[in-house]
Amino acid sequence: MARPRARDLGIRVGHGQPGPLNAITDVAGVRVGHATLVSGDGPLVVGQGPVRTGVTVIVPHEGDVWREPLFAGTFTLNGNGELTGLEWLRESGFLGGAIGLTNTHSVGVVHDALIAEATRDAGPQTEFWALPVVGETWDGQLSDINGFHVRSEHVAAALAAASNGPVEEGNVGGGTGMICHEFKGGIGTASRLLPAEAGGWTVGALVQANYGDRDQLRVDGVPVGEAIPIDEVSSPWTTVRSPLGAGSSRSGAEGGSIIVVLATNAPLLPHQCARLARRAAIGLARVGGYGGHGSGDIFLAFATGNRDLSRASGESGDPRSVASAEFVVDAAINPLLLASVEAVEEAIVNALVAAQTMVGRDGITAHALPHDRLVEVMDRYGRGPSGNSGAAAGV
């Protein structure tokens, strides 16, 4: 059964119009798949569990993603995290494959598994190579992160499950064991459909949200975190919360991370994709993320509006030195920038709304953001169902 989303509760984030699914899959050709691993309860036994982790994959278009690259760009707000392949992406401006999201200590296996899938598809092409993009956030507060439970078959399962339909959110895939603003977090997605006079383009966002202090949480500008403090709904970080991050750059609420992937069907050049990626930081800030010292806040944007770029990237082997591409003129890019901000903002809120309470290792519990209290607080500030009479009708 699909979990509720912000708009199902009558909460509208921002002012833009979402696409039909209000998901990154509103960008034609984009597919998302998850493999979710949940097993065991009780005390942590490294190598056995409890396990609360998984893999999410984003397939950027319907063609051969390993041999037909797309223009892309990236931005890092704070770098205590990993998104592999970014050096070549920055250098070349191309995204050349599926994107994987998982936990911090499983980046290597997901990276290797994606290469294995790519080379298997390539057949006997011995000169084929790949630099996959794989992102991570740390789920070790709830899961046996040092047990290395994610394996290559889980990556294959996530790829096989990839669909262009509605996207599961919350405790799924790479987001299974994640915590956001000291509530249960995880995967979230949203989209914005620009009006025809602004190009009619679609922008979609998918986040793996695992960051944030409770008192910083804002929903559509409302101080929800202050209104639902940890003495009302306890934090999974209660035993390690401290202003200094409990002696570790990745311990405590301050040391979480977020990976954001933005997609658009607009024809953008790599530097324009990077401009969209930078705007993800504003969407994050609107919800209360500030890129703390121990946080890995890394964002990527890709554009499907130019296709058949194999010759431009040299993948085709064509010796001709000139290729053509279309692009949105910079004077018309503002609607895409705003759409990126709002899609990221709503995707994070959707991750929080969809997530369910999870008991992890050693009985540590990440509580879901309580829907009744969220609606009550939003209504108090005139931003809930009572003040957004049309919001509940949205996607």
Radius of gyration: 20 Å
Number of separate strands: 14
* CATH C-level: Alpha Beta
Number of helices in the DSSP assignment: 8
Mean model confidence by pLDDT: 92
SSE sequence, one letter per element: EEEHEEHEHEEEEHEHEHHEEH
CATH topology: L-amino peptidase D-ALA esterase/amidase
Question: What is the CATH superfamily?
Answer: L-amino peptidase D-ALA esterase/amidase
Overall, the morphology is: globular
Structural class: alpha+beta
Domains (count) = 1
Q: Which features does this protein show?
A:
four-stranded mixed beta sheet; alpha+beta; globular; 395 residues; 23% helix
Explain this structure:
Residues 241-249 and 389-395 have low confidence and may be disordered. It is built from 8 helices and 14 strands. The protein has one domain (7-239, 252-317, 324-383): L-amino peptidase D-ALA esterase/amidase, CATH 3.60.70.12. The two termini are 16 Å apart. Helices cover 23% and strands 21% of the residues. The chain has helices spanning 86-92, 107-122, 152-161, 224-227, 270-287, 310-313, 334-354, 371-380; strands spanning 31-39, 51-59, 70-79, 94-95, 99-103, 133-137, 179-180, 183-184, 186-193, 202-210, 257-264, 296-303, 358-359, 365-366. It is globular and about 65 Å long. The chain has a 6-stranded mixed β-sheet. A 4-stranded mixed β-sheet has the order 1-2-5-6. The protein is α+β, with helices and mostly antiparallel strands. The longest helix has 21 residues, at 334-354. Helix 5 crosses helix 7. A hairpin with a 5-residue loop joins strand 13 and strand 14.
